[in-house]
């Protein structure tokens, strides 16, 4: 179902979502673009764009278009599995224990999600919603979600999603998808929820010419990518070089700061802590973000099986590019480039992966 709207129509969609959902969308905060909750429509970063490179980020104001910026620096996982999330509270009163599970049923709508983040969300679904052990905390938010995807206008210097199985013709579970044309927007309703929302607003149907223009826009995006990673036989080549001395060269540069895992849309390492009151009548079970780069992450029975930065970086890259394929049949990297931008040591996962496979 294809529709055509102007900026007022875009605002109507946004306002309609806010009537039912907690809307999360990009906004400008502290000089960077971030997904934030309950942002006013006029606070969306229309007309901005960002320049990104290894350890480099700059926002610029452009003109004439709206969705000129790229994906925000934080990711959807922040709202589905927050850095510190309470799972369970246990209380003791009069010699009896009571248990309260903190499963969140809030209805979330993500407005303006780019394909790399939509693909990353499906990658997380494979982790948290697997058939054997589905996560009820993740599932409660995921099943009530509304997703509004938006086509990118261009790629940045760190983007390589087109190499990592992110296809421009795939909607990756979005309920509606928006493509900016010249002064107008093509809206594609892709789910029952999406059709219901759009038709409630009495929006005009798109013409064949509008649909063709949107297709040409997407095809033109491919020519703006500057990074490329050959993924043919990548897993096999990485396994072949898993003991190569070049890993030591990367380890000498890596600071093990965990920046890459914090901004990665698919990293999901966590720790669970029991936080007890001094009176011992209250205990809270909290899940918090962890990282395979943390020094104690791989400690088992007081022995650390990855006690060097080299071994920790190798674990991270191999997990993204090889182990994940063994487990889920796809890459654990969606090519969003955030880890490249926010690495203070200017280590580029695309560059290092390409070098390692060719050694």
Estimate what percentage of residues fall within beta strands. Answer: 15-25%
Using the alpha-carbon principal axes, give the shape.
Answer: globular
Trace the largest sheet across and list its strands: 1-11-10-9-8-2-3
Count of discrete structural domains = 2
Query: What's the order of the H and E elements?
Result: EHEEEEHEEEHHEEEHHHHHEEEEHHH
Low-confidence stretches: none
Structural class of the secondary structure composition? Answer: alpha+beta
The number of helical elements comes to 12
How are the SSEs placed, and which strands pair?
Layout: E1 2-5, H1 7-20, E2 22-29, E3 32-37, E4 48-53, E5 56-61, H2 77-80, E6 84-93, E7 96-101, E8 108-113, H3 115-128, H4 136-142, E9 146-150, E10 176-180, E11 185-189, H5 192-200, H6 208-221, H7 234-240, H8 246-253, H9 259-263, E12 270-276, E13 282-289, E14 299-300, E15 303-304, H10 309-328, H11 338-341, H12 349-358
Parallel strand pairs: 2-8, 8-9, 9-10
Antiparallel strand pairs: 1-11, 2-3, 4-5, 6-7, 6-13, 10-11, 12-13, 14-15
List keywords for this structure.
seven-stranded mixed sheet; 24% strand; 2 domains; alpha+beta; four-stranded antiparallel sheet; 32% helix; 359 residues; single chain; globular
Could you write a compact summary of the structure shown?
This protein has helices at 7-20, 77-80, 115-128, 136-142, 192-200, 208-221, 234-240, 246-253, 259-263, 309-328, 338-341, 349-358; strands at residues 2-5, 22-29, 32-37, 48-53, 56-61, 84-93, 96-101, 108-113, 146-150, 176-180, 185-189, 270-276, 282-289, 299-300, 303-304. With 359 residues, it is of the alpha+beta class. It starts with a strand and ends with a helix.
């Amino acid at each position: 179902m294809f529709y055509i709207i102007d900026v007022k129509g875009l605002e109507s969609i946004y306002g309609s979502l806010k009537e039912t959902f907690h809307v999360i969308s990009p906004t400008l905060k502290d000089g960077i673009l971030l997904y934030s909750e309950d942002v006013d429509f006029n606070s969306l970063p229309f007309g901005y764009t960002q320049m990104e490179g290894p350890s480099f980020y700059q926002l610029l104001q452009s003109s004439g278009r709206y969705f000129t910026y790229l994906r925000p620096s934080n990711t959807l996982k922040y709202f589905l599995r927050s850095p510190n999330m309470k799972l369970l509270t246990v209380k003791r009163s009069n010699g009896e224990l009571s248990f309260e599970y903190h499963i969140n049923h809030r209805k979330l709508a993500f407005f303006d999600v780019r394909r790399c983040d939509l693909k990353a969300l499906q990658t997380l679904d494979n982790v948290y919603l697997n058939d054997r052990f589905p996560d009820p905390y993740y599932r409660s938010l995921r099943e009530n979600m509304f997703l509004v995807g938006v086509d990118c206008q261009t790629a940045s210097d760190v983007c390589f999603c087109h190499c990592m199985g992110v296809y421009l013709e795939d909607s990756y579970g979005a309920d509606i998808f928006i493509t900016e044309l010249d002064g107008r927007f093509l809206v594609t309703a892709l789910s029952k929820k999406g059709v219901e929302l759009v038709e409630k607003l009495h929006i005009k149907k798109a013409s064949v010419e509008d649909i063709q223009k949107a297709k040409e826009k997407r095809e033109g995006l491919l020519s703006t990518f500057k990074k490329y990673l050959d993924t043919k036989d990548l897993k096999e080549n990485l396994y072949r070089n898993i003991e190569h001395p070049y890993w030591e060269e990367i380890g000498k540069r890596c600071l093990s700061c965990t920046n890459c895992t914090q901004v990665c849309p698919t990293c999901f390492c966590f720790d669970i802590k029991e936080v007890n009151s001094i009176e011992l009548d209250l205990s809270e079970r909290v899940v918090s973000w962890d990282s395979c780069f943390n020094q104690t992450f791989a400690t088992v029975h007081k022995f650390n099986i990855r006690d060097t930065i080299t071994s920790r970086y190798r674990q991270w890259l191999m997990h993204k590019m090889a182990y994940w394929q063994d487990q889920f049949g796809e890459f654990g990297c969606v090519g969003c480039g955030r880890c490249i931008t926010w690495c203070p040591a200017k280590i580029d996962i695309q560059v290092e992966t390409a070098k390692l496979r060719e050694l």
